[in-house]
């Protein structure tokens, strides 16, 4: 709460410089790949993002699960420039890259796109459920019916600054019940409620 905006700006400028350097290096690497053999599949991604103060956290110490940690770049360069201008805006997880790579080895003309209705992310007691319409975050155990929740409309609220949990309690409770149902191993997983997949706005 008492952070220095100038210090935060200095950190963000330093990181922006690093991102610019990485971007230039990737450009050079992709240029080299154009002259390489035609059978090279190139994948670039990251395990997690790096918070730069968007939610008053810088670095990886006690990082809350917001978009700056979970939304990472993923670049897949197919050989011979195939699918070079294709962009995908759906929900994916790092494990989906395994399917992309395996499908390419089996059939080099196939491009795989994950068909996820939702994605889950956990850190200690914290749980985040992301769907095409919502991002629901529980900072404490979902078993506690009084645990606080944050709810953000997606994709409109990209930076998760407009918490609408108090106005959309039915969405929060549907998410809580669904996540509780996923915690029982060995049982069949319940279908995700329709209210979590679409917003009324």
Written account of the structure:
The chain has about 200 residues and is α+β, with helices and mostly antiparallel strands. Helix content is about 30%, strand content about 15%. It has 4 helices and 6 strands. The protein has helices spanning about 5-35, 65-70, 95-105, 170-180; strands spanning about 40-45, 75, 120-125, 125-130, 135-140, 150-155. Strands 3-4-5-6 form a 4-stranded antiparallel β-sheet, with helices on one face. Strands 1-2 form a two-stranded antiparallel sheet. The longest helix has 30 residues, at about 5-35. The chain starts with a helix and ends in a 20-residue tail after the last helix. The model has no long low-confidence stretch (mean pLDDT about 85).
What fraction strand? Answer: 5-15%
Helix/strand order, N-terminal first: HEHEHEEEEH
Radius of gyration: 20 Å
Described by the principal axes of the CA atoms, the overall outline is globular
Spatial sequence of strands, sheet with the most strands? 3-4-5-6
Number of strands: 6
Pick out the low-confidence regions.
none
Summarize the biggest pleated sheet: 4 strands, antiparallel
Helix content: 25-40%
Summed over residues and divided by their number, the pLDDT gives a mean of 84
Count of individual helical segments: 4
Distance between the termini: 32 Å
The secondary structure category is alpha+beta
Strand-helix topology:
Blueprint: H1 5-34, E1 42-45, H2 67-70, E2 74-77, H3 96-106, E3 119-123, E4 126-130, E5 134-138, E6 149-153, H4 169-181
Antiparallel strand pairs: 1-2, 3-4, 4-5, 5-6
